[in-house]
Amino acid sequence: MFLKTDCYRLGEISKLHSYKGEVTIYLDVDDPLEYKNLESVFVEYGNKLVPFFLERIALRTNGQAVVKFEDVDTERRAKTILKCGLYLPLDTLPELDNTEFYYHEIEGFSVTDEVYGPIGKVIHVVDQSKNPLIAIEHEGQEILIPKQDQFIKNVDRENKHITITAPEGLLDMYLGSDEEE
């Protein structure tokens, strides 16, 4: 049995699609096309992850897909899984290069800015659709850094460390400047 901590959230079952048990799912991922051949998922049902096998999946726009699960062949059965989360095992995630990362994997990583030096540890990533932010704890204060390629210089998974170059002036807002005016 898979635990939620061994999986990543793929999305959720958002609405009914037909009276024959089809549902519309929302894929909360960067590239929904990577999941066009999806064969099975874990559905979070009653605080447990239950495996569901797909008969078919048809990708739509905006990260949505119409799915027909095996053994879900009535509207009534489909309603029982409506709004449930969808999960896949972490080991199914593709490997990323040294400046890319999955949001869940960097929690707890230490962060160093190339100018300021050590800043703190990643608390979480604030997932705003167009501009995600990395939340870093620094001496009880939260610092928000845009998660943009030009600011992330290196992600060292082995040592749980991220090197950044924050936008000019951003860290001064949080940390103040050492120079007296």
Describe this structure as you would to a colleague.
The structure is a single chain. This protein folds into two domains: 4-92, Elongation Factor Tu (Ef-tu), domain 3; 103-175, SH3 type barrels (Roll). The chain is elongated, with a radius of gyration of 20 Å. The chain has helices at 75-79, 170-175, and strands at residues 7-16, 23-27, 40-45, 48-59, 64-69, 85-89, 110-113, 117-126, 133-138, 141-146, 152-156, 161-164. The model has no long low-confidence stretch (mean pLDDT 90). The protein is mainly beta and 181 residues long.
- Taking strands numbered 1, 2, ... along the chain, how are they ordered across the largest sheet? 1-2-5-4-3-6
Query: Can you name the CATH architecture of the largest domain?
Result: Beta Barrel
Low-confidence stretches: none
**CATH-defined superfamily of the largest domain:** RimM
End-to-end Cα distance, whole Å, is 61 Å
Classified by CATH, the class of the largest domain is: Mainly Beta
Number of distinct helices: 2
The level of helicity is under 10%
